[in-house]
Design a protein that fits this description.
The chain is an alpha+beta fold. The protein folds into 3 domains: 114 residues, no CATH class; 61 residues, no CATH class; 102 residues, Jelly Rolls (Sandwich). Strands 5, 6, 8, 9 and 11 form a 5-stranded antiparallel β-sheet that branches. Strands 3-18-14-15 form a 4-stranded antiparallel β-sheet.
Length: 305
């Protein structure tokens, strides 16, 4: 349904659609047209929470293999330390680590490979002028993937480090994973809150309540070690209506409530007798649109059964 469709119904209700069967020109109704566009935009945004039109985002995740244990805890730097230990681990081909601002101009982070009997530096990182928790990632080019690899942290003063990873597989430099307990997923700009979240494991188990969290009402995070698919259903925020050619972004049944909503507002100017009648019809249309709600996710769970 377009704004024009709503506009035509409104003109008919306030007796401004035709005159003796002849369409009234747009120029004569321009004041009403401009008001209708503004009122429709306002009504659509007021009704969007009852809207049954939804959008869906699908996130598929298979966590990369981290060769380090106890990798997400904050650790104090006190003396030279190695991960997983001084003997290393075989075959790491990438890394990820975060250090706080105290590591600036103080810390040295080195990725080393045991070649023969000698530890050889592959990558050296010296954080400089960082002012917040900073992530460093990269790939490792080994002499042999069977060689031991270790992460070495040095420094002269205290600093904190966390989210350490030695990745088993080789990635493109631009897509080396960042190891964090929670991974932020950038939601679409029209997202303003969840309707339902469904988690589906690779072996078919299906239920609502995925390992996720929401911050600031719209920042979506899922657990790094989650494996499977997360489908997020939400009611998109309608875009601002600016012209008669714009399409209404709520379902057609609910959009009928917009007609009566706008008529009740225009009634103050065009026909006061319409106000109470149209307000009553608006409430009825909203109730009709709210009927027959979709079953709760726990009812749908037997779909895979």
């Amino acid at each position: 349904m377009t704004v024009q469709d709503i506009y035509n119904k409104i003109l008919a209700m306030i007796d401004q659609y035709t005159e003796d069967g002849v369409d009234i020109s747009s120029a004569e109704n321009i004041d009403i047209e401009k008001k209708v566009i503004l009122f429709v935009d306002s009504a659509q945004k007021e009704l969007w929470k009852q809207n049954k039109k939804t959008s869906q985002v699908s996130i598929t995740n298979k966590p990369p293999i981290n060769l380090l244990d106890n990798a997400d805890t904050y650790e104090d730097f006190e003396e030279t330390v190695y991960y997983p230990d001084s003997t290393g681990t075989p075959g790491a081909q990438g890394y990820s680590i975060q250090v706080n601002e105290e590591a600036s101009d103080n810390a040295t982070i080195t990725l080393q490979e045991l070649v023969g009997a000698t530890w050889t530096d592959l990558v050296t990182i010296t954080p400089t002028s960082i002012t917040e928790l900073t992530t460093y990632t990269g790939v490792l080019t080994l002499t042999s993937t069977s060689n031991q690899v270790r992460l070495k942290l040095e420094g002269t003063e205290h600093y904190l480090h966390k989210n350490r990873a030695l990745w088993q597989y080789k990635y493109k430099a631009a897509s080396v994973p960042i190891y964090e307990q929670w991974v932020k997923y950038d939601m679409p700009t029209d997202f303003n809150g969840l309707d339902v979240v469904i988690e589906e494991f690779p072996f078919g188990q299906y239920y609502s309540g995925a390992p996720y969290k929401i911050e600031n009402y719209r920042d979506f995070y899922y657990a790094f070690d989650y494996e499977g698919e997360i489908r997020i259903t939400y009611k998109p925020i309608p875009t601002t209506v600016t012209a008669l050619t714009d399409t209404i972004e709520i379902d057609d049944v609910l959009a009928e409530a917009i007609v009566y909503d706008v008529v009740s507002k225009l009634g103050f100017y065009e026909n006061p007798d319409l106000v109470n009648w149209s307000e009553g019809r608006r409430l009825e249309a909203k109730m009709d649109a709210s009927a027959n709600e979709v079953p709760a996710p726990d009812i749908v769970v037997d779909f895979y059964g």
